[in-house]
Amino acid sequence: MILLWDALGLGMRYLTVSANIQTGEDEKLEGPMLYGTLGFAIFVR
29, 37 in Cβ contact below 8 A? Predict the structure, then answer.
């Protein structure tokens, strides 16, 4: 179970880095905006 939690953390970290690279230097997806987007995506699913 701990291994799954660690894998989730690593995956989220790399997805955040990927999203920040995609948005460019002007916009960074982090903090409340990141958590709001993730919460909405989970809720809609």
Answer: yes
Q: How far is CA 18 from CA 3, 6, 12, 34, in A?
A: 22, 18, 10, 13
**Quick one: pLDDT at residue 1?**
81
Question: Measuring CA to CA, which residue among 30, 9, 10, 32 is closest to residue 20?
Answer: 30
Pairwise CA distance, residues 39 & 35, whole Å? 6
The Cα–Cα gap between 18 and 31 comes to: 15
Distance between CA atoms of residues 1 and 7, nearest Å: 10
For the full predicted model, state whether its pTM sits above 0.85: no
